[in-house]
Amino acid sequence: MDEFWKADEAESMKIKGESLSQQFYAMKEAPSRLKSTLENQNFLQETAPYLEKLALYGAAGEAAAGMVLMEHQRLTAEAQEQRVILEGLMKKIKNIPQKLSISTMDSFLHRALSGPDFAPPGQ
Q1: pLDDT in tens, 26-75
Q2: Nearest 5°: CA angle at 46, between 33 and 52?
Q3: Is the dihedral of CA 80, 56, 95, 106 positive or negative?
Q4: Which listed residue, of 34, 49, 52, 118, carries a Cα 20 to 30 Å from 100's Cα?
Q5: Is the distance from CB of 57 to CB of 105 less than 8 angstroms?
Q6: Domains, the chain, ranges and CATH?
Q7: Environment class of residue 81 by beta-carbon count within 10 Å: exposed (0-12), middle (13-18) or buried (19+)?
Q8: 93 Cβ partners below 8 Å, 6+ apart?
Q9: Chain centroid, CA 66 distance in Å
């Protein structure tokens, strides 16, 4: 995530953003992959809210990275669409009381919502 924020050129940011989006996609899909391969239904029932929250964090990360990339490219309408999606996902995340120890995600999502914060070229 730090490398994404430190990207100083559009192409570098695009590459870092695509890599980050792939990681968020994996996070979003992990619960469904687990559900399709794990036979322990009791475990899946007990962890369902945690798995749902993990998937939501992954989707929110995808939306946040997309939004920031679109803002960086001055694609205002597209960025706004991603912002609406991100804000909706963050509300859903907040409504799940189970805690996940991924505070880095909260920081990333809030930083993305606060607006562009790119390192100046050469830093």
Answers
A1: 999 999 999 999 999 999 999 999 999 999 999 999 999 999 988 888 89
A2: 50
A3: negative
A4: 118
A5: yes
A6: 2-113 (1.20.58.460)
A7: middle
A8: 53, 56, 57, 60
A9: 9
